[in-house]
């Protein structure tokens, strides 16, 4: 259109000389009219009533053949002569006709002939807003870096509007946005243009492209406008760091997972593009050990397992990760890798305290041990059940979490079970469950709860008599089921009396061994049995004891030879049994009576004739000891018969005693005496007798001398006084001239024999009622108790010394007697002395 416009302009200029010529002609005629019409009227539109305006009538016009003369090539107007009006003939475009020139008009002449008249008509074309502002391009492109500074200007293309005046371009409008502002300028030639100004920072990442419209608006009514698109591409700058899409990545991995197990992927995005947005990942600040456990792929952000994870060591790993773009911007985040527990740990039992031994009298419920059980696994895998053998008297009590007390469930008896092996088992609740056990060896310590018990309820032991003192008789033994000191048994004798003397004087007991020893030698004949109580006492505190009765039976031994009671065998006596010559066969001469203080077999006596003057005359009853004649006594038989009877007991070995039985076969006593004078004496020295005689002699001698002195003094005194002697009757000391002489002849001294005949009331008693023990110089004629027996006992001191002592004693006694009775028997005394010597 611009070209067209120029082209029109040039056409107008070329028409100019011709128009000037016409003006010269018309002036001569007169008349000039001016019309103003808007452009772009339709063909035939009325411009003006020329006839009227010129003051001509239509006739004239017709007659004058009025016509329009113009220099323009285009005939814009037409004169309607019949009506005298001027109408638009051709479209009138002001912009074509005049371009920018204002006001825009064209002129032409109306020529009339007859007369020639020339009228100038000027038609002014008024502009109408028929042109919109126009941009030369539809679209303009900008590439702006996002780092562009605020206030940067960007020149925009200007628009053109063919219209003029107010219909021409008035202003620019930029579609609303908050980033760019618009500033309008007018160039010196009046053209309007605009600049875009950056008001807010660009962000490629939020708006990488912008599409704006620049609108050019004219001032016509209505407005017309033209638009151009502004296409803005925001160029990237590395202004965005990479950003992880999560601040924390959670992942789990089971503790026994294999290597290269996928764990998780981290992802950071960088809003920048190109290399500015290329992100690489790495772990930051990671502990060295963990570097071998986890791997982070630099490009993909995939984390995998490369080592071993152990829940028990670390329940989770918190690892810092970092993403870096090529521009060096970074972001960091965390990865929390939780290790999932697998039941790979058995419970661990720790015995915190354990008291062993425990006393057997501990009450049920006593705590024996405190156990701590730890399972490194968690939750179900770490939930522990603790148990112990139900067969043992223990149970487990849970006191605190993971702490268990092992308590006793019933009473103990060390004597039955001295120790327990307690198995404590801890099991977790994992699947499969793992368990572990520990064995506690609990010893039960002893309490003195058992008294010693003797092996037998009573003891009977036998001890042969005549034991050597100190001999061990036997042992009692007691057992104590307790232990050690509580079972250390000591034995004691309970203090009792046996025959009035304390037990301990008979037996003693070894307190250690329980061996009972005899303290003395026992004589069965004195004591037949010992009844003791032995006490066994243990060493506990307090001690316990028990008793047992012990009976020690003294066993007889053949330690006593038979004792012949009859006939009595005393040292100096001589007994003879009288057998009348008239005695028949079977005449009971006498009976040997013997006893044995032993008992039983040992006291079972048998009698045998050992020697006899005439074996054919007598026999001895084996059992009863009766001596009987076995044939008729004849006159030829000697008066003096001597039988040796041996009495044997039945002991092993047997003991025996012999007794000599003198038998006088005679009818009268004198006959007997004559025969028996030479009876030999089986004499034994009796030291004791000698001793007592000497002692008595010494005492009596002393008394005698003392008395003698006193008496002599008194007598002399009395003699001087009165010279009178008192006489009184003296007791008669029987004196018999010696009839028997001492045939043993141990001494050379002559002997005096005293003899007396006496009757004993008891044949077993041999002591005579006359005189003292020492003065048995008697001859006893005794018809036996049976009445048929007679016997003669002749006793005399056996040795010369004893005789002498005896005589002295007798002498002294006489003297003393005389002295005390104040009698004068000096003569008799002297007779004694002289006889003795
Ligand atoms: C990262 O995350 C974004 C969106 O969050 C996604 O479009 C992209 O594919 C992810 N990248 C990877 C490597 O998964
Ligand atoms: C982040 O990226 C990872 C990897 O692509 C994806 O699995 C995860 O869902 C993303 N997280 C969010 C919140 O988009
Ligand atoms: C307990 O165990 C020990 C050693 O294993 C063993 O010597 C002892 O005899 C056991 N005791 C019991 C009562 O089983
Ligand atoms: C043992 O015997 C004594 C006396 O004989 C008596 O006091 C005591 O009670 C007895 N002890 C026992 C345990 O029988």
Automatic annotation (TrEMBL):
GO terms for molecular function: calcium ion binding. Its main location: membrane. Gene3D superfamilies: Cadherins (2.60.40.60). Keywords: Calcium, Cell adhesion, Cell membrane, Glycoprotein, Membrane, Repeat, Signal, Transmembrane, Transmembrane helix. CDD domains: Cadherin_repeat. It is a single-pass type I membrane protein. It is found in: Cell membrane. One of its GO terms (cellular component) is plasma membrane. The keyword Lipid metabolism does not apply. The chain crosses the membrane at residues 689-714. This is Cadherin domain-containing protein.
